[in-house]
Amino acid sequence: MLPSPGVGTSLRQICDKLQPFALHLVYRPGHFQFRYGSLMSELASRTCVPCRGGVPPLKGKELSDLHKQLPDFAHWKVVNEHHMTRTFTFPDFVKALDFVNRIGAVAEEQGHHPDILLTWGKVEVTLWTHKVDGLTESDFIMAAKIDKLQP
C-alpha cells in the first residue's frame, strides 16, 4: 500500500515516500506521471530537450539526485554545480578516437554537444548547457548515453 501524502505535502516529500516502492513521480511540462522501476536505467533511454534558455540551471539536492541516477555516477565529477566531467581511458589512440566518433554521432542525434578532449589513450568529456550556463537534465541524459557507449 502506498503512503498517504496528506494535506500540505510537497512534491519532493511525495517522491521521497514513493522511493521505497520503486514508484517514481515524474514531472513533464504540463503533467505528472507515475513510473514503476528504477530511474537509473531510464536516463539513457530518454531524449535531450533543446534548451532555449530562460530556465534556471540545476542546483543543490535536485542536481545531486539527478547525478545519482547516472549508471556510473561516481565517475562523473560535478564541478561547482556548473558542469560535469569524466575521463575515459583506452589502450591506444585508435580506440579512443573510435569512442570520440561514437560520442559525436550520439551528440548530433540528440542535438546536445559535449566538449571532448582526445589524447593518446584518453578521452575527457565535459558537459553543461551553454544557454543556461549550468547543468540541465539533458546533460545527465547525454552522460548516461555516453556511459552506454563504453566497450
List the helices and strands and how they pair.
Blueprint: H1 11-18, E1 23-28, E2 31-36, H2 60-67, E3 77-79, E4 83-89, H3 93-110, E5 115-119, E6 122-127, H4 137-148
Antiparallel strand pairs: 1-2, 3-4, 4-6, 5-6
Question: Can you offer a commentary on this structure?
Answer:
With 151 residues, the chain is α+β, with helices and mostly antiparallel strands. It folds into 2 domains: 37 residues, no CATH class; 106 residues, Gyrase A, domain 2. It is built from 4 helices and 6 strands; from the N terminus they run αββαββαββα. The strands form 2 sheets. The protein has a 4-stranded antiparallel beta sheet, with helices on one face. A two-stranded antiparallel ribbon has the order 1-2. A hairpin with a 2-residue loop joins strand 1 and strand 2. About 14% of the residues have low confidence.
